Amino acid sequence: MINIRRATLEDMDTLVKLRLDFLRHMATLREDDEATLSAQFADYLSRHLNRNALAVLAETDCQVASIALLTVAEQPAHRYLPSGKSGTLLNVYTYPEYRRRGLSIQVVRRTIEEARNMGVSAIDLLATPEGKPLYEQLGFGDTPLPAMRLRIF
Ligand SMILES: CC(C)(COP(=O)(O)OP(=O)(O)OC[C@H]1O[C@@H](n2cnc3c(N)ncnc32)[C@H](O)[C@@H]1OP(=O)(O)O)[C@@H](O)C(=O)NCCC(=O)NCCS
User: Fold this and answer.
1) Is residue 28's pLDDT more than 90?
2) Residue nearest atom 23 of ligand 1, based on CA coordinates
3) Which residues line ligand 1 (CB under 6 A)?
């Protein structure tokens, strides 16, 4: 049986594990960063989860199989962001043994629904090649202006 649900602070250890497993998969986790990133993420969750961030989990037979995170930020509203609230979707991850069963699509759909209920006008993300077809299926498209970044440190 598949259970799709919003995470709470009681899921803290599971969320931290899923975050590290995702970063490991993305090859963006150095072994000596694990403790620091775990502590930062636990602290982040304790301050933001179910305030301006949310996590949706998929469980199959009580095993956590899939996750998506959403952070919500508020900025001055404009024509394409009428509420001024935008979401960033990140850490979309399904453990390899549970892939291609429609878990991520359900998790991301639920995340979009929760974002809508929070008054979010638009959701942004950076897609991996594996993730792109999933997001396209859900209606995500290219943005009219290119994303840019300045790394400060
Ligand atoms: C991308 C990822 C989250 C998909 O998870 P999943 O639970 O297998 O996805 P779903 O089963 O819900 O797939 C839904 C649809 O997305 C598309 N899709 C999913 N994985 C795909 C892949 N590897 N290649 C092409 N299309 C894919 C398909 O359209 C699929 O529908 P279908 O199986 O009926 O063809 C998973 O492969 C993963 O964790 N990858 C590593 C982390 C990652 O890249 N995350 C995305 C960050 S942006």
Assistant:
1) no
2) 130
3) 25, 66, 92-94, 99-105, 127-128, 130-131, 133-134, 137
